């Protein structure tokens, strides 16, 4: 177990301690209004934890408090882990960013693109471009999520069992085959749409590496980094530390327990979802974020080269535009204005357009239960936020947290 604690005077790393305490006051306000079950925030600079803010309950009904070793469902914060795994295979020469994924996943050999009709009777045309590895990493493959509910293809996903999460009973190979039978939303590489692309990426990693995704993660990422409490299921003896999952009550807006979806992390999954299946602790994910801000290396363990990390944290959207320009409207873990998308992360290109205090070059992502993290290479800052409230669009937590962190930075 990684003991996470404040290990530097904030002033030594350029933060005003009193201003950092505004984080606590702000999110304590959420608790006082009964809008969050509990929270944990971690602010790090120069590799040192400058601030920990924690309060509330990890399990309201059991009266169990949030603690630094609480285990959280990180949902789509799994995606950066899967993206790092894919880039490790690129560095090993086993796959290239321009490679068609059909080389390893033949079910995607003849993708077709929606051209009209309904969810049950679609008119399609052949894709003019194969789906390539970089399309999966950037969510420009033409795939979608059923829960978007903005297009007939979204409905087709739901009809196939892909609403929130993967279709029941399918392993990762079965998921890939089922998704390949559905039409694409647009021609690969032409637009951005948040999607199951990272689940397909996980299957690609399995085929290319010859290992199940959970084994690859454990052997190549988690064990080397000392992330011993991150995986697709919490150890039986640690289930009391796994936070309960909540949604806003439709009338009172108070946190309402959702044990059906809260089964994630408690039971062994049929599918190792590279797009949203992991549970982790603040201590574990802190080490992952530190590896990223250090350019792919931590404590003598190097997962990626610094040039690879720089490429991942660069905007890859067509024409270098932002998400507002080429992104489909719908659910997202990031704002659109001023943000591009790299190989597995959102990328802040224009703080003025985004109207944020954060630094250009920040890369980030979040999870459906309102968790979030970002890495600021320019200031050598990482920030983590954990809670368990679905969906992440309920409150503007990420926008607020950015401002709260950077207003405290005085050097």
Automatic annotation (TrEMBL):
<protein>
    <recommendedName>
        <fullName>Beta-lactamase-related domain-containing protein</fullName>
    </recommendedName>
</protein>
<dbReference type="Pfam" id="PF00144">
    <property type="entry name" value="Beta-lactamase"/>
</dbReference>
<dbReference type="InterPro" id="IPR012338">
    <property type="entry name" value="Beta-lactam/transpept-like"/>
</dbReference>
<dbReference type="InterPro" id="IPR050789">
    <property type="entry name" value="Diverse_Enzym_Activities"/>
</dbReference>
<feature type="domain" description="Beta-lactamase-related">
    <location>
        <begin position="23"/>
        <end position="392"/>
    </location>
</feature>
<dbReference type="InterPro" id="IPR001466">
    <property type="entry name" value="Beta-lactam-related"/>
</dbReference>
